């Protein structure tokens, strides 16, 4: 087992620093947490990419395509691995309201939460964007940590 930010190199038979290499070039992989994002191999590294608005990544075709349904089932799986670590800080608590409420992630501005019917959901901003607490949107000009 390797430390975080390392991967096991079969040729060297040891853990080395850096993300796991990605082959073949331009190959795409499903994002387990989002329907409209995917990973593609660029220069041997998996890079998070986003489909055009209104499209979802199609695992069978290995590209973005028009979705078969308007609902993304991944949004409701509540998988813990689909949210960045809070680094020991407490996750926010949803207020008791039927209205949608947005809350910042306590340690990583690439992520944010939204509450619906008092249920907390973790979401990720598109690549290159950060959660702007002033506007409650993902923003590409936000100088957030």
TrEMBL record:
Ranges where the Chitin-binding type-2 domain occurs: 17-74, 91-139
Coiled-coil spans in chain: none
GO MF assignments: chitin binding
Lineage: superkingdom: Eukaryota
GO cellular component, one term: extracellular region
InterPro entries the UniProt entry points to: Chitin-bd_dom (IPR002557), Chitin-bd_dom_sf (IPR036508)
Name of the protein described by the UniProt record: Chitin-binding type-2 domain-containing protein
């Amino acid at each position: 087992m390797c430390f975080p930010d390392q991967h096991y190199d079969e040729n060297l038979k040891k853990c080395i620093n850096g993300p796991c290499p990605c082959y073949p070039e331009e190959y795409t992989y499903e994002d387990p947490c989002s329907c409209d994002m995917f990973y593609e191999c660029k220069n041997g590294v998996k890079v998070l990419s986003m489909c055009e608005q209104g499209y979802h990544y199609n695992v069978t075709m290995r590209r973005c395509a028009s979705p078969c349904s308007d609902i993304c089932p991944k949004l409701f799986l509540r998988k813990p691995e689909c949210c960045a670590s809070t680094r020991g800080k407490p996750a926010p608590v949803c207020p008791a309201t039927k209205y949608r409420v947005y809350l910042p992630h306590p340690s990583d501005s690439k992520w944010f939460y939204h509450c619906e019917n008092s249920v907390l959901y973790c979401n990720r901003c598109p690549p290159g964007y950060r959660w702007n607490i002033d506007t409650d949107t993902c923003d590409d000009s936000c100088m957030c940590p």
